[in-house]
Amino acid sequence: MYANPGRLGLLGAPTYPMLRDPTQTTLLQVMDEHGLPFELNKSENTLVAKDINSRVIFRPADEVERLRGTNLAWFGLDELTYTHEAAWLRLEGRLRDPLATELCGFAVWTPKGYDWVYRKFVMNGGSQDYGLVFAKPHENHYLLEKVPDFYDRLKGSYDETFYQQEVLGLYINSRGNLVYRSFTREQNVKDLQPVARVPLLWTLDFNVDPMSSLVVQITNGEVHVLDEIVLRHATTQQACEEFLRRFPQYDGTVVVYGDASGHREQTTGASDYEIVKDYLARETRLNVRYRLAKSNPAVRDRVVLTNSKLCSASGEVGLFVDPKCKELIQDFEEVCFREDSGAQIDKDQDRLRTHLSDALGYLLWQECAPKKPSGERGKPLLC
């Protein structure tokens, strides 16, 4: 407000009570304590800083549509994780006062899972367009001077997950139905490079949007996810083109895996796997083999197997992901079971989720699943 004398700013929160009680009340208290003269218009829900003639409007986030055409010098939002992304985007669009001294938009929040706020401001280091400050709870010296055991009291009242999120400000998936519980970035994400002459494993999950696949190697019993190919509104042939663009002359065998639905005939008369075989045979001299199951494993079985490779009960980590596989990492951190079903993965929450973790599960089931003896001589039957 004082950096932009004579200009208009906005303070918002998800709802009017949340705006009125913590945000607006605190602003008035701070101005009183510092002897800053102001005039509050309750009917219009605005404040004027009388010594600099700056005006502040107070708005719940669900009313930002009313601000079309308004030029703001600055805005601030409280409890951003309870606000729709559209509200933030609308306010960014209003941040355009040509007479502003310092155009600025800011927000504060407590983490609430891997939501849009996490993806926009935190994931992968955030964006260069924004600055991000992580405030640790014990940095709040003002509070601790008055209530020294404040955080200890909360630890006794909250469960561990809630305490980590609400008090420590950590990003965790607080939903109890997380699918890939064994994954952590600390133990499963590291820089990886292809190993020469070790087979390159390409596993696909067939969707038009997104067309998803992973490039993997298994080295000394460890599964290394080297790269991901995620194409929006793409065809199977375009997935093949992108694979060859990234790995044009691999000196070793390429093995193809994937979703059993790829055997189904498309409207063109050919199946996804027939398209892959035809394209790779026509466009490359790579040594390509195929390990294609006739049916997919049960969801529960491949999830259990994937979790055991991420980290077994004995603490052995057997699956590593290169940090550039951002969508797969999001799958591991965000994919959940449906609330009403402990065994059915929720595929409706985010249409970008589940495809890469599914593709990996199909490969792992082919390569790493325990072989059960069957048939006359107790040998495993091949798909």
Specify the helix fraction band: 25-40%
Order of helices and strands: EHEEEEHEHHHHHEEEHEHEHEHH
Radius of gyration: 27 Å
| Terminal CA distance | 69 Å
| Class from secondary-structure proportions | alpha/beta
**Average residue-wise pLDDT:** 86
Strand content: 15-25%
Taken from the alpha-carbon principal axes, the silhouette is: elongated
List how many beta strands DSSP finds. 12
Low-confidence stretches: 373-383
Largest sheet: 6 strands, mixed
Can you identify the CATH class of the largest domain? Alpha Beta
Q: From the coordinates shown, what is the CATH architecture of the largest domain?
A: 2-Layer Sandwich
Q: Biggest sheet: strands side by side, in what order?
A: 2-3-4-1-5-6
- Alpha plus pi helix count: 12
Number of domains: 2
The CATH topology of the largest domain, please?
Answer: Nucleotidyltransferase, domain 5
